[in-house]
């Protein structure tokens, strides 16, 4: 099934006016998004997210408006990618069969071995706010494809996954269509098992762990057209290949077009949303057009004439991980290691799980 089909219009016709009335009585409004809190789309999503409880939907929507006032997501930037090109590799690359934006990410392309909740939320917010501007037809959700090739131990931090999931669930309810996780390790599997009990069950059912090529092909053919499926398979193949080759960093320059394969996205997406930006010389011109889609910050920067130079990312080694890291990620040392300085056996076991 491509997407869950709701049979709740009769219920929504009755409840949307009630929620709108409650919100208007709260006298909350966003200066740069005056219709956000009372739009049909917003009212529908928040009612569904709170199981049609008007009081709870109102509470969550009020919190979201306050967050949007302080965070100002329409003007969101990823300063991490601006300061360190390719810090995040997550980017929109096209659309699925339903017109939902597809966001792709590969750990092997990212220029960091360790993310924080803060940088992850900032980058994700930038992406999904811009992805909304490209939704086609009746689409209201997005799809994530996460390639775990090159995933490091710090990126398996349960706090990181939980923090991002909570932020998206709280402030972007009913926006997630599907998450496909490709090439995941045993370590990722353990982390997912640990955090999914704290995540909304509806969200949990939307995440699919895909380990083999046959399952990947099946999911891709169901969700994506041929052009998009082939682009994803080729991008994943190239990232897997480069991860094994210490002499190549070509795939890490994902903001550069190439004749053989354009890592910026499918031809349809590039032609419609990236190439029109080639005539724009100042980033401020794009920022002034609130409704205009902006791609990954480094794709945009490259179009504006910025030159980014990369070095081969240093692979995280076992000796780079300290006991403090294990404590930060709430990883418990084995009993016999509690008096040791290194926790070497635990670290070694974790690295072995990352390779599986």
Automatic annotation (TrEMBL):
InterPro entries registered for this protein in UniProt: CRAL-TRIO_dom, CRAL-TRIO_dom_sf, CRAL/TRIO_N_dom, CRAL/TRIO_N_dom_sf, PI_Transfer_CRAL-TRIO
Could you tell me which residue ranges the CRAL-TRIO domain spans? 93-244
Q: Indicate the segments annotated as coiled coil, or none if absent.
A: 316-346
This protein's record includes keyword Manganese: no
- Lineage top rank: taxon: Eukaryota
Keyword set, alphabetical order = Coiled coil
Q: What is this protein called?
A: CRAL-TRIO domain-containing protein
Q: Per the UniProt entry, what species is this protein from, by scientific name?
A: Cichlidogyrus casuarinus
């Amino acid at each position: 099934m491509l997407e869950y089909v709701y049979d709740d219009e009769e219920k929504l016709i009755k409840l949307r006016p009630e929620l709108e009335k409650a919100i208007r009585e709260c006298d909350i409004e966003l200066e740069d998004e005056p219709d956000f809190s009372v739009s049909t789309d917003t009212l529908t999503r928040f009612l569904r997210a709170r199981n049609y409880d008007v009081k709870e939907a109102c509470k969550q929507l009020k919190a979201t408006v306050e967050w949007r006032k302080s965070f100002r997501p329409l003007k969101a930037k990823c300063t991490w990618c601006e300061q360190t090109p390719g810090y995040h590799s997550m980017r929109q690359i096209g659309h699925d069969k339903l017109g939902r934006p597809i966001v792709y990410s590969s750990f092997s392309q990212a220029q960091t071995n360790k993310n924080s909740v803060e940088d992850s939320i900032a980058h994700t917010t930038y992406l999904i706010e811009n992805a909304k501007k490209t939704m086609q037809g009746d689409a209201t959700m997005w799809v994530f494809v996460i390639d775990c090739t090159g995933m490091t131990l710090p990126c398996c931090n349960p706090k990181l996954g939980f923090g991002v999931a909570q932020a998206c669930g709280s402030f972007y309810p009913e926006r997630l269509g599907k998450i496909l996780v490709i090439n995941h390790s045993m370590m990722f599997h353990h982390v997912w098992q640990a955090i999914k009990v704290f995540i909304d069950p509806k969200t949990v059912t939307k995440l699919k762990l895909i380990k083999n090529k046959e399952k990947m092909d099946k999911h891709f053919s169901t969700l994506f057209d041929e052009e998009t499926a082939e682009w994803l398979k080729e991008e994943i193949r190239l990232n897997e290949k480069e991860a094994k080759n210490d002499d190549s960093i070509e795939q890490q320059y994902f903001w550069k077009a190439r004749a053989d394969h354009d890592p910026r996205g499918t031809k349809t997406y590039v032609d419609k949303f990236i190439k029109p930006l080639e005539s724009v010389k100042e980033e401020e011109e794009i920022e002034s057009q609130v409704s205009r889609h902006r791609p990954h910050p480094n794709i945009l920067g490259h179009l504006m004439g910025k030159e980014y130079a990369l070095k081969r990312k240093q692979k995280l080694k076992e000796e780079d991980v300290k006991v403090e890291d294990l404590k930060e990620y709430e990883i418990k040392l084995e009993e016999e290691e509690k008096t040791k300085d290194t926790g070497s056996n635990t670290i070694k076991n974790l690295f072995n799980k990352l390779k599986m």
